[in-house]
Amino acid sequence: MKFFIDTANLTEIKEAYDLGVLDGVTTNPSLMAKEGISGKEKVRNHYKAICDIVDGNVSAEVIATDFDEIVSEGKELAKIDDKIVVKVPMIKEGIKAIKYFSSEGIRTNCTLVFSAGQAILAAKAGASYLSPFIGRLDDISIDGLDLISQIVHIYQNYGYETEVLAASIRHTMHLVKCAELGADVVTCPLKVITGLLNHPLTDKGLAQFLSDHAKANP
Ligand code: G3P
User: Fold this and answer.
1) Is 87 one of the catalytic residues?
2) Nearest partner of 108 among 60, 66, 155, 46, judged by Cα
């Protein structure tokens, strides 16, 4: 399973990359705004800075919602770096654009996915990645992990090549469950990735080992 980090914060991206387990980055307009990135030039430079840190691919989301504008914005984003994957919302115009990008060899990440029907549509359009939002479904009392399970099953039935990129991951159990269910990728905040390190028995055991070593080597 690939690990992507879901942030536009360069320090966090660098920290995850330095851990040696990072396969890519996803961003969205809210995450870019959170970092105070606005204006075409600044946005472009920021995506380039992210691409320069990581080896894997970087999802950059379009703001446009009209087919022609999505295509034009997506092409501009794709020109920034070979690592860019154009993130497109799950709307009618978005599906048409994903089909177009697919025929042009431009990789896409279909975002804001909340149902299996939407997942089928995106795969048929040729999306490279599909982003079902687990946490936001949980927020409205619908089990987001059930959707991951359903989509993985459907994609296996038909051999769709679209990778299931589980998004809106809020905690380590979401991540571990996604691994059990066969999601291809998880994208999550840094704290979820580093949270995988934690276990009290590891801390206790290490303290004991170091203490025993110190006693034997005064
Ligand atoms: O980037 C899309 C998704 O991961 C957003 O997550 O926590 O805002 O629902 P969240």
Assistant:
1) yes
2) 60
